C-alpha cells in the first residue's frame, strides 16, 4: 500500500482553531472586539500575515466582522435566534410566557447540574459576584427597579450557564438572554404585589441554589433550580387566577 503524504497544516489554520474555540466556549462573545493583529501575533507566537489570513477566513465564514478603521469583532448575529421582534411577540403572549418557564425548567436544571460538577475557581468567583448582586437587589426591596432586579437575576443564571462548560447550553442561554431577562422582569412584576414573603422565598431559593453549586452537589443543584421555577410558575398562576376572580366579581357587581 502506498501511503498518502501528510499535508502540513498552515499556521493560519491553527489560529482559526484557537479563535473558534474561544468563541465556542464563550470566552469571546458576540460583538466583542478582538485584539489588534500585532497583539494577536504576539499572543499566538506567529507572524502578522498568518493572523491576517486567519481573520479573513473567519470573516468569510461569518464568525467575525471587520469595521473599517474600527477593528475586528465577533459577529453580533451569532446565537441570535430569539431577537426582536420575536421577543416582543413572545412577551405579549401569556401562554408563551408559560412555555418559556417550562423551557427554562429543563435548560437551567441541566446548567445547574453541570456547573456544580465543572465550575472552575474563576467561574466560582463570577458566580459569587452575580449572587451578591441578586442578594443586594432583593434586600433593597422598594429602592431597586424591576429592570435592575431582572438584570441581576438573569446574569446570575447566565453565570451558572457559563460555569456548566457545556457550549450548547451556554449559547442557548445567551441566544435567549434578552428574552430571559424580560421574562424575569415580567415575573417580578407579577409577584412583587404579593408581599415580602414571596421575595424572601425567592431570595432563599437563589441562595440555596448558589450554595448547592458552590458545594458541588450536582443533583441537589438540578432539583433546586427546577423547584425554583416550579414555585415561580405556581405563584404566577395563582396571581392570574386571583386577577380573573376579582375581574369576574367586579363585572357581577356592575350588572347587579
From TrEMBL:
CDD domains: WHTH_GntR (cd07377). Residues 9-77 form the HTH gntR-type domain. It holds the Pfam family FCD. PROSITE patterns: HTH_GNTR. It comes from the Bacteria. The keyword Isomerase does not apply. InterPro entries: GntR_C (IPR011711), TF_FadR/GntR_C (IPR008920), Tscrpt_reg_HTH_GntR (IPR000524), WH-like_DNA-bd_sf (IPR036388), WH_DNA-bd_sf (IPR036390). This is Pyruvate dehydrogenase complex repressor. It comes from Thauera mechernichensis. The lineage of its organism: Bacteria, Pseudomonadati, Pseudomonadota, Betaproteobacteria, Rhodocyclales.
